[in-house]
Amino acid sequence: MKNNSLCILMLLFIQMAFAQNKLVWQGYFSYSEIKGISQSATTIFAASENALFSYDNKTNIIKTTNTIDGLSGQTISTIYHSLNNNKTIIGYENGLIIVINDANGSILNVVDIISKQLPAGIKKVNHFLEAGDVIYVSCDFGIVQFNLKTMQFGDTYFIGDNGVEIIVNQTAVFDGFIYAATNNGIKRAGVNNKNLNDFSQWLTVSSGNWSSITTFGSDLYAINSTGNITKFNVVFNSFSTITQLPQPSLDSKISANYWIITTADSIYIYNIKMEMIRQINRNQILEINSSFTCATIIGDTIFIGTKDDGLLTTLLYTNTTFENITPSGPSKNNVFSIQASASALWAVYGFYPANYNPYQAPGGFPTLYGISKLDYKSWLNIPASKVLGARSLSNVAVNPRNNDEVYVSSFFSGLLKLENDVPTQLLTPQNTGLNGLQSIEVANNPNDIRINNPVFDRDGNLWLTNNLVAKALKVLKTNGEWQSISLASVLPELTAFGGLAIDNNNTKWVASRRGVIGYNEKGGVLKVITEGSEKGNLPSPDVRSVAIDNKNQLWIGTNKGLRVLSNVGNYKSEVQMIASSIIILEDNVAQELLFEQFITDITVDGANNKWIGTADSGIFLVSPNGQETKYHFTVNNSPLPSNTINDIDINSNTGEVFIATAKGMISFKGTATAAKEDLNNVVVYPNPVRPEYKGTVKITGLLDKSNVKITDIGGNLVYETTAQGGTIEWDTSAFGKYEVVSGVYMIFISAQDGAETKVKKVMIIR
């Protein structure tokens, strides 16, 4: 038989060291969906969807680990902490294994299983069993040996009939044998057998589908897929039933002298005599709404993982008190849309696919999720039970005149209004009048009201799109009156709409599946830009995002590329407006910028750079004219957890760029803040600059094109630049040649026209 040992493959360790990136990246991950837990004598290690956290049961200290620290953005399937090696091992659904050395915090990616020539769908890691120096890795194709000391793989065991792949859910070593609980029986072989990669050495002890197998005390136990708990009889070489669970077991774990079995609705705790000493039912915990996923015990504390409510603790012999110890974060990782204001970041999780059909969400019906708000210090999660039944929440608009008033569009239920973080009203056709919101016209369903992309104009009016109706552009005036604008003259067929932007001339630009529609209420002018050289020159009529830059140019993102309309000021005079592609030179070959890319979002920063998100290629940062690609961030070169970018927004005060992906949200802490109107709020930080600080000095609150000069105390110039936006950085060097010495440095700031000046100081301590 051909030896399928993984040791014939090169072990590839990729050190995920974003040392430089740690200075500019920040993670905003959800830790609510607990995929697995493990423990040391004092610490619990919990794996969420694609991040980790640990909780010290003595000090109550919580530490998080995510893609910023080097984890993968892929979905975690299991976790194990090795006391003997002081290492934590994470298994993923795609076969990736990550090993964290808890002594020094280093993180290594082990990709041998991913590289194995097997179908991608059967590489999931299900369980780790430590036996001596060997870790037995249970996978959806068989068992793999891995040595935590040498960090090398051993043999691979394909133990199905005739050596085919078989799902192995868990393994156990008992009485000189290694047992495997599989979807096709419990199989065993001598643990010291030198030929375990020969399938014929594995004998079937019991048929059926088995979810777990474990040693407890001096006995061997197994649970089948229906929740039947059995005990191994060494005399008859078979398993016999002890008890039947009302639900299948999701997790089985031994901790000290306890066996903890978890089902969706209950947790059962047995002592060494197999007496059930505690049962926790989900309906006993008023604080949660989701099912259990796993549980374990440290000392007299029970730790309970849940599907959507994070990690809970309770005492072993107390039935009433439960505490949630989950790190602060958004309620979910798949953030659909975000809105950043100066005071807060809002996130919603509504979903519709590329065809704008909310019924194709997971579960086959429009999603009912909550809303998250970050005040830049802590998270507030408004649960789904509080959003007045609004489904498929798609976009957020914060009233610039009153940040406590927020509107959230629902792509199924209407428009949700929040006041002081509390949903107070769901606006529908029934309460907005004849000129208000409408149900879709393509089906007789009065409860299907698809609202998208609310945006406030400079006068405080709220504009939005009403999908699949003729009067598709709506505005809620500051006096509470609604107005509807029909787009039928330029869009004879009903359609769905993407982004909405308003330019300096108060023209509204609406992205749709049939092009970009422009509307200006002065004269009621409607125009459309679509594909075709004579109709607008778009690469596709399916427009997903529009953005107005600092020069009042319209950037248009479609499902097949990018276009720019540079003459928005000629909106009324030009009969047909024509957009242009951006041609760049790459390897001395002329190419179209972002050719054929599915563009999901375009956001303009304070320096007029464009942040462009894509459906599967990550995020691009391009220069104001698009000729230079400053960054192209993907999962391979950055902490991005996914190359699917759902939305981008920027805190204009700080320059922090928030990036919502299908696998979590992160931010890039850049310097492109929006320019100020005066120099009254210039800030220099950090100040003083201490010896341990390795970053740059930031000067923020500037006017655009401010001149900034930095001198030593003797008046010698060490740095000079012109601000592009509201912030500049200084690397504390003299024009990049050498680090400046300790001392006080003067910062002289002047407006472009010299009419306004400001002087600041910064102290450097080497």
UniProtKB/TrEMBL annotation:
Family matches, as InterPro entries: PorZ_N, Reg_prop, Secre_tail, WD40/YVTN_repeat-like_dom_sf
A Pfam family hit: Reg_prop
Signal peptide as annotated in the record: 1-19
Ranges where the PorZ N-terminal beta-propeller domain occurs: 44-202
Keywords assigned by UniProt, alphabetized: Signal
Residue ranges that the Swiss-Prot or TrEMBL entry lists as coiled coil: none
Domain of life of the organism encoding this protein: Bacteria
Keyword Signal: yes
Entry protein name: Two component regulator propeller
